[in-house]
């Protein structure tokens, strides 16, 4: 089998290589592709050294699968070319998520949405993935009427430039005029409601993704959703405070049982022992952690929970590789 990783030199691309090795693809032929400035660079994979090639070269090798983490512009340009060559593309960018003909997939929830003719598959946004997986059993059992979400998102979601900014600020070596700024303000000892560009309605693109993608994954456009995205000086993963209004009343013990039984989810919820999810626990892990479960005393059929996951792993690289694994198993 040939597998291409497009955008292999980036933060998520490198993690995709790690996940591929961890999940048993170390002996497969892996093609690493990136932008022209990275062509020829070496990348370590499964005890051997791979050489970065151009995206055009990767297409010419006709891999069975191509996992993209190269940004929306590159995905729009190259994903159709891979698809035309017979490759199944799993794209981590925002390019195809809203396309009605492209499945948006969290494999534990809706791998069945991928049909035999789908050559491009979209990986959801990181903050969406962890939330919809944590709530998936509740959606099936009770139905979700409304979600009120506040996310506390790691700087790694912005990319390597944001990591460099935080590290330089922490060390006292930051120079605002250096051109390395990822954010409009310092992030060290700070946070701000920054989730992509602001739209005319006052919401950010990142907040709108939570609305559109949740409805598409659950195949339920009637769910009412509002969100606020906050960027925090954390590297381990994204955290989310979620208020859920269900369509039917619930038993809290049954909710706990359903969440604990969800594949890929860890229920970590004993506040008396200070057991609750934190990014430091989720870092380098594939699971979605859920805690602080409690009934909303102000609103019927509602509850609050806290959801944490490593946004580079399950929120990006791991989910993409899991989609590929599920498709291979289904063949």
Overview of the structural elements:
- It is a single chain.
- With 331 residues, this protein is of the alpha/beta class.
- It folds into two domains: 2-124 and 316-330, 3-Layer(aba) Sandwich (Rossmann fold), CATH 3.40.50.720; 128-311, Dihydrodipicolinate Reductase, domain 2 (2-Layer Sandwich).
- 33% of the residues lie in helices and 23% in strands.
- The chain has helices at 11-22, 55-60, 72-84, 107-110, 126-141, 160-171, 205-218, 252-260, 279-282, 313-330; strands at residues 2-6, 29-33, 42-45, 48-51, 65-68, 88-91, 120-122, 144-153, 224-231, 238-246, 265-267, 288-295, 302-309.
- The strands form three sheets. The protein has a six-stranded mixed beta sheet.
- The protein starts with a strand and ends with a helix.
Offer a quick outline of the entry.
The protein has ten helices and 13 strands. The chain is an alpha/beta fold and 331 residues long. It has two domains: 2-124 and 316-330, NAD(P)-binding Rossmann-like Domain (Rossmann fold, 3-Layer(aba) Sandwich); 128-311, Dihydrodipicolinate Reductase, domain 2 (2-Layer Sandwich).
């Amino acid at each position: 089998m040939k597998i291409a990783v497009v955008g292999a030199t980036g933060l998520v691309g490198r993690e995709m290589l790690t996940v591929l090795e961890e999940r048993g693809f170390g002996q497969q032929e892996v093609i690493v592709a990136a932008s022209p400035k990275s062509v020829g660079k070496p990348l370590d994979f499964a005890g051997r050294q791979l050489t970065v090639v151009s995206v055009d070269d990767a297409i010419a090798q006709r891999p069975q699968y191509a996992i993209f983490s190269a940004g929306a512009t590159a995905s729009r340009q190259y994903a159709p070319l891979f698809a035309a060559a017979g490759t199944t593309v799993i794209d981590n960018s925002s390019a195809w998520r809203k396309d009605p003909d492209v499945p948006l997939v969290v494999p534990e929830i809706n791998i069945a949405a991928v049909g035999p003719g789908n050559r491009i598959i979209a990986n959801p946004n990181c903050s969406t993935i962890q939330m919809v997986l944590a709530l998936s059993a509740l959606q099936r059992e009770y139905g979700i009427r409304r979600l009120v979400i506040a996310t506390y998102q790691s700087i790694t979601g912005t990319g390597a430039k944001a990591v460099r900014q935080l590290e330089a600020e922490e060390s006292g070596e930051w120079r605002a005029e250096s051109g390395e700024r990822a954010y409009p303000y310092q992030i060290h000892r700070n946070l701000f409601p920054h989730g992509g560009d602001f739209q005319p309605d006052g919401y950010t693109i990142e907040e709108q993704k939570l609305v559109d993608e949740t409805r598409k994954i659950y195949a339920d456009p009637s769910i009412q959703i509002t969100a606020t995205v906050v960027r925090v000086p954390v590297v381990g993963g994204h955290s989310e405070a979620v208020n859920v209004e269900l369509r039917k009343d619930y038993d809290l013990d049954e909710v706990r049982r359903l969440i604990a039984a969800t594949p890929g989810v860890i229920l970590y919820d004993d506040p008396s022992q200070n057991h609750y999810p934190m990014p430091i626990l989720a870092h380098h892990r594939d699971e979605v952690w859920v805690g602080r479960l409690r009934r909303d005393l102000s609103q019927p059929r509602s509850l609050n929970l806290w959801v944490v996951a490593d946004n580079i792993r399950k929120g990006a690289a791991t989910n993409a590789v899991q989609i590929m694994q599920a498709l291979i198993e289904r063949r």
